[in-house]
Amino acid sequence: MSAHVVIIGAGYAGVMAAKRLLRTRSDITVSVVNPRPHFVQRIRLHQMIATGYDATVSFDSALPRTAHRVFGTVTDIDATVSRLTLDNGIVLDYDYLVYAVGSRQSPSTIVGAAEHGYSVAEFEDATRLESRLSTLDEKAAICVVGGGLTGIETAAELAEQRSNRITLVTGGIVAPDLSERARSAILRTLTDLGVDIVSESRVTRIDGSSCELAGGVRVKAECTILATEFGVPELARRSGLPVDDLGRLKLNDRLECPSHPNIVGAGDAVTVGENSLRMSCQAAIPLGVHAAETILHRLDGSAPHPVTPKFAGKCISLGRRYGVFQRTTRVDEATRMFIAGRAGAFVKERVCSSTTDWAVTPRRSLFYSWT
């Protein structure tokens, strides 16, 4: 049975879904909708803003040649007639839809964030930040807001590559989801790199020269980088599809939308059954493959398999020379085991490189899944 499959999003999940579908069957037509004409190595964006690293991969490498590329942003999904509308007026009908729109920085409640804040959440954000950093002199102060993995990596990368004073501010503790020993290793390395750490302090206001903390204390900052909570596009909610409180598309354990089974999902913008999976390429890659497998099973008239999360760890780069690998359980809980220092940096770089290999090497996409 032939079918037209439309994939919304060409990130880690969308690219893997396209490869799995087109490398498995020749009678399927796949259209990939994406706002930009290249694949973005999102896990490299902090390198891009600090060192000019090229975080993009051509679609000629990332997508099969037989995939139809449609550039634009989907504004509406009419699930009752299986039809998409794009912001440029293009309309696409589908037999199956892969919802893989990814995530983005949540709108900040900090006063002045929209006018004076920067981000590394998406390629366009990182490009804007890279441009701003190029205008700063070596004495300018930079503040990174957020003590999660994105904030840590951004602060460390900038501290290693630049002579600016770097301050990391977090409303809680740094790396709250890691083990105590792994967290201590990160704090030591950040301190050695010259990063000033302000924890248990919430930023309430940003202007062009400082960040104001709750209580009135000001941290000097000619450039403020927001590495706070991530959210998802409102597309599913706006289209009347079932979503959770964050707006993520609700799926069953076979990655199907219960109300419209010809819609499957993968990546950051979905929630699977009772599992709220960490937004990460570690989840997006196998979910993309599994979403494609679900469609292939339906086309063959067989029952799709349920997905079983199999997390392995969390990797944090601390500049180019140091890093931490935190081993986790299959359900993503930190264990006692971790690797730090130069060995941690080696593991992190190998993981990043292999992640890109999974996304751009055709034959490997046939073997990666959570089954």
What percentage of the residues does DSSP assign to strands (E)?
25-35%
Strand order, sheet with most strands: 5-2-1-9-22-21
Specify the biggest β-sheet. 6 strands, mixed
How large, in whole angstroms, is the Cα Rg? 21 Å
Specify the structural class. Answer: alpha/beta
The geometry reads as: globular
| Average residue pLDDT | 94
| Number of helices, where a helix is a run of at least 4 consecutive DSSP H or I residues | 10
Low-confidence stretches: 363-367
CA distance, first residue to last residue: 24 Å
Helix content estimate: 25-40%
- Care to count the β-strands? 26
Short account of what is shown:
This protein is 29% helix and 29% strand. The protein contains ten helices and 26 strands.
Mind explaining what this structure looks like?
By secondary structure, this protein is an alpha/beta fold. It is built from ten helices and 26 strands. The protein has a six-stranded mixed β-sheet with strand order 5-2-1-9-22-21, covered by helices on one side. Strands 11-18-12-13-14 form a five-stranded parallel β-sheet. Helix 1 (12-24) packs parallel to helix 9 (281-300), helix 2 (45-51) packs parallel to helix 5 and helix 2 packs parallel to helix 6.
